[in-house]
């Protein structure tokens, strides 16, 4: 198979030359799935110079140190799954990613120092699965009415400072699974809240893994 006909690529760059990497990706016109993983989350991942991303890209997974998400990500009309394990981002990822309204699945791994995730009304109208993994600084999750209306699965944790029930979770009428990971003490405090049953009673599967 010719390189340009590739539909799936997983690559671990060794030299940090962003222009060479962007040149390679730009030539893969039929690419549907792309994983770029630096050797560590502290190593610079530079994809800003990619001017012509593969337009058929459906799945994108990035690991590395990135100060800013490339603008071309928001131009990918076919992108439905996005995974980010990035350090160094100066911008709050949820606020930026809401510019990609066709996303069905988002995985964010916590290398950021954000204390709050705030989902505003109208954001992510098609999102079905959200994973917020290993955010050591997050204290609150706020979900406005009209945000992520079609979400089916929400996984959170470990988030050692998140002691309160995600605010607005009662608005997520299609939510089938709420899972907490590595948050025994935190979930204990949540269940002691007098509103716990009222705001989570509509969710068929609520549990935690250790």
UniProtKB/TrEMBL annotation:
Fetch the Gene3D superfamilies from UniProt. Ribonuclease Inhibitor
- Key words of the record: Repeat
Protein name in the entry: Disease resistance R13L4/SHOC-2-like LRR domain-containing protein
Has keyword Repeat?
Answer: yes
PANTHER family to which the protein is assigned, alphabetical:
RX N-TERMINAL DOMAIN-CONTAINING PROTEIN, TUBULIN-SPECIFIC CHAPERONE E
**Which InterPro entries does the record cross-reference, listed alphabetically?**
LRR_dom_sf, LRR_R13L4/SHOC2-like
UniProt KW Repeat keyword: yes
Disease resistance R13L4/SHOC-2-like LRR domain span: 2-180
Q: Which domain of life is it from?
A: Eukaryota
């Amino acid at each position: 198979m010719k390189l340009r006909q590739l539909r799936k690529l997983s690559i671990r760059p060794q030299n940090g030359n962003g222009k060479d990497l962007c040149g390679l990706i730009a030539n893969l016109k039929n690419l549907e799935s792309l994983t770029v993983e630096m050797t560590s989350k502290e190593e610079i991942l530079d994809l800003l110079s990619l001017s012509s991303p593969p337009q058929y890209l459906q799945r994108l997974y990035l690991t590395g140190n990135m100060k800013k998400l490339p603008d071309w990500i928001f131009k990918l009309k076919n992108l439905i799954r996005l995974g980010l394990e990035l350090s160094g981002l100066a911008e709050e990822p949820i606020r930026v990613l809401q510019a990609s309204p066709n996303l069905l699945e988002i995985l964010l791994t916590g290398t950021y120092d954000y204390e709050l995730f705030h989902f505003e009304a109208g954001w992510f109208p098609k999102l079905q699965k959200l994973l917020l993994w290993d955010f050591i600084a997050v204290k609150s999750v706020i979900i406005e009415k009209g945000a992520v209306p079609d979400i089916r699965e929400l996984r959170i944790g470990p988030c050692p400072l998140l002691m309160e029930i995600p605010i607005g979770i009662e608005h997520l009428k299609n939510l089938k699974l709420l899972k907490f990971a590595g948050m025994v003490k935190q979930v204990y405090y949540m269940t002691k809240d007098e509103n716990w049953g009222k705001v989570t009673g509509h969710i068929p599967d609520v549990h935690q893994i250790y």
